[in-house]
Amino acid sequence: MEQGKHLWWSRTKSVLVIVSITMLIWLAADQNVALEEECTIVVQLGSDVSDRYAGFAESPFSREFTLKLKGRRNRLRDFTRYADSNALLTAYVDKDMPTSSEARTVTMDKILSGIHELKEHRLTLLSVVPNEVKVLVDEYTTIRDVRVKPDYGDLKVTPEFLRNTVSARVPRFLAKILGEAPIAIAIPAQSIQSVQRTGDSFEVAGVLKFDLPENLDPKMRIEFEPSREVTIAGRIEAMTATESKGPIQIYWSIPDEVQRDYVVMADQMTFRVHIDVTGPKDRLPQLEARRIRAFIDVLAGDVDGLGSGKEIVRDVRFVLPADFQDCAISNESQPIQARFRLEPRPRGPSTVTPSVRPIE
Predict the structure, then answer these.
(1) Rounded to the nearest 10 degrees, how much is the dihedral formed by the CA atoms of 118, 121, 124, 126?
(2) pTM higher than 0.70 for the full model?
(3) Average of pLDDT values for 44-54?
(4) What residues pair up with 105 in beta bridges, in sequence order?
(5) Contact 225, 169 (CB under 8 A)
(6) What average pLDDT score do residues 85-90 get?
(7) pLDDT mean over 235-246
(8) Could you tell me if 235 and 200 are in contact, meaning their C-beta atoms sit under 8 angstroms apart?
(9) What is the pLDDT of residue 3?
């Protein structure tokens, strides 16, 4: 009996081994079957030669292509997964392609077949949609004596350049666009005000760039010599100024109820004055003195506890026009004061004068 069980188990194991080997052989064969399959990839152009630029001639500079590929099932699957996980693939233009500063139409199957990932997965490119596109493949050239212009934003600055000019390596077609007197903008790496030192001077690291048209490839390689990094230094000029405005006429502002019963008796004082006004440099000259109003305010509460000969001292109030709210009376100006008394009017008929009137 035991011998029969042993014989049965031995035969069963043999069958299982044979079945397992057969399945492995079948799976291996299935994975190595040559298939054709379509997939979509996003591609940018590049050059293996450091002294050449390659890119699409117009936006978008990263484009979507539908490829028909042939290869083993497992390799097709691996490439598809790779393409899905890497949003952008680079197709390197053949080094033998002629260079030109003008755009040309090329067939993409010749270019895309050179994608490194296709070669690594040993896949054959059968077709590309779209297949014809315009590209730029151009040599690099050196532009010398490129003027450096720091970007100070809204600040007015007296510059102290540490480097006035640089050289730039750019594709020839870009050199034509930049013209005969190209300017490189030096962009501060941080706010100039944040590194301002005593005396309004500053020094901040910056990076050079050209102000390029929007229809050019933003990934285009541009090199500055001796370096892209620069130091931006200078002194911040005052954004505001102070000017004397005048003569300005001073008016009395008296409530009717006070003016009805009291007469304002003022000490000898000047009612035409000059005052210092602070504001933006470019705005101050536009502010005319005749538009500035000045008042001595007599308050209803001034009659409380009024005694014979009580003297009231009050600062003159200045009002700037509504369209010059970015200006103000200078904090350095000494207050202009008026000294006056309120004397009861004699009993009898009286005429109420306007609540605001000038005193000559």
Answers:
(1) -60
(2) no
(3) 91
(4) 134
(5) yes
(6) 82
(7) 82
(8) yes
(9) 58
Residue 136 scores a pLDDT above 60: yes
Neighbours of 8 (CB within 10 A): 10
SS3 content of the chain, % helix, strand, coil (to 5): 25, 40, 35
Radius of gyration of the chain (CA): 43
Using DSSP, state whether 162 is helix, strand or coil.
coil
The DSSP call for residue 65 is E
Per-residue pLDDT of 153-180, as tens digits, reads: 877 787 776 678 899 999 999 999 999 8
Q: Decide: helix, strand or coil at residue 339.
A: strand
CA distances, 291 to each of 72, 245, 277, 319 (Å): 87, 10, 13, 9
φ, ψ for residue 153 (rounded to 5)?
65, -135
Q: Reduce the DSSP state of residue 324 to 3 states and report it.
A: helix
CA angle 142, 99, 147 (to 5 degrees): 20
Torsion from C-alpha of 60, 214, 45, 179, nearest 10 degrees: 150
241: left (phi over 0), alpha (psi -120 to 50) or beta: beta
Distance CA 66, CA 131 (A): 9
CA distance 293 to 249: 7
Q: 9 is written with which tokens?
A: 């188990």
Which is nearest to 109 in space by CA: 96, 118, 122? 118
Residue with tokens 């690291």: 205
Give the pair of three-digit tokens for residue 207. Answer: 């990076």
Bridge partners (DSSP) listed for residue 148: 184
Q: What 3-state class would DSSP assign to 119?
A: helix
Give CA torsion, residues 280, 283, 289, 295, to 10 deg. Answer: -50
Quote the pLDDT of residue 63.
Answer: 92
Query: Cβ distance 316 to 337 under 8 Å?
Result: yes
126: Cβ–Cβ under 8 A, 6 or more apart, which residues? 36, 68, 69, 70
